[in-house]
Design goal:
By secondary structure, the protein is α/β, with parallel strands linked by helices. It is built from six helices and 14 strands. The structure holds nickel (II) ion and manganese (II) ion (MN).
């Protein structure tokens, strides 16, 4: 069975490998664009890129209900334990490190961004993830500006890159084109846009730019739509 990646609005994705349900950056109940509520989603693993509210808000409730393992950096895993998540339900890691999990290898990549948890606790360094799944590598950049080390990430061979294009808080459409050139993914899909007015973007125009300036195939989803790997 193939892996399906569903956009749940903003930076939240559900990855269904057939055997395991993964959730990236759950922000559902208060998200203006999420097609589902936190009480409705399935999760065996919840991956958190950084501590900002629009990436962690529903993680504790979903982890508590499902018993999912929370994967995050050291500081954020400590915070989850303070929120009542058991020590054996967190997978600590940090930038540059990898862990082998039942669905594949997870590497935490750098991101150029800040990170503080909703209650003001320091969230460590912001990051992203490369998931090595059966069908290929998927790169979730997380919230980030453009950085030259994307070349190194691209050297791993990326089947699908998930990149922010909202601008203002992350890179915008123009810098994402530079990112795609360095990452050389087969496919690329945009996130972190059209949630609120400051990050409104025209994804159709972005896709045209991707087609004319890079070799990647752009995939623009509406919240609730999915990509098959
Ligand atoms: Ni952020
Ligand atoms: Mn964000």
């Amino acid at each position: 069975m193939s892996t399906e990646i569903t956009w749940l609005g903003h930076s939240c994705y559900a990855v269904q490998t057939g055997k395991h349900a993964l959730l990236i950056d759950p922000y559902l109940d208060e998200s203006p664009t999420s097609p589902v509520k936190a009480a409705e989603v399935d999760a065996d693993y919840i991956l958190i890129t950084h501590g900002h509210f629009d990436h962690v808000t529903d993680a504790v409730s979903i982890a508590t209900r499902t018993g999912a393992i929370v994967v995050a950096n050291f500081e954020i895993c400590n915070w989850f334990q303070e929120q009542g998540i058991a020590a054996d339900k967190v997978q600590m890691m940090n930038l540059g490190g990898s862990v082998e999990l039942p669905f594949g290898r997870v590497k935490m990549t750098i991101a150029q961004h800040s990170s503080v948890l909703p209650d003001g606790v320091y969230g460590g360094s912001a990051g992203g993830y490369v998931l090595s799944l059966e069908e290929g590598n998927v790169y979730f950049a997380g919230d980030t500006g453009l950085f030259l080390d994307m070349k190194l990430i691209g050297m791993e061979g990326i089947e699908l890159a998930v990149l922010p294009i909202g601008d203002c808080f992350t890179m915008g459409p123009e810098d994402s084109i530079q990112a795609i050139k360095m990452l050389s993914p087969t496919r690329v899909t945009p996130c972190h846009y059209n949630t609120w007015a400051p990050i409104d973007q025209n994804a159709t125009a972005w896709a045209d730019q991707v087609r004319s300036h890079t070799a990647a195939n752009p995939v623009v989803l509406l919240p609730g739509e999915k990509i098959e790997l």
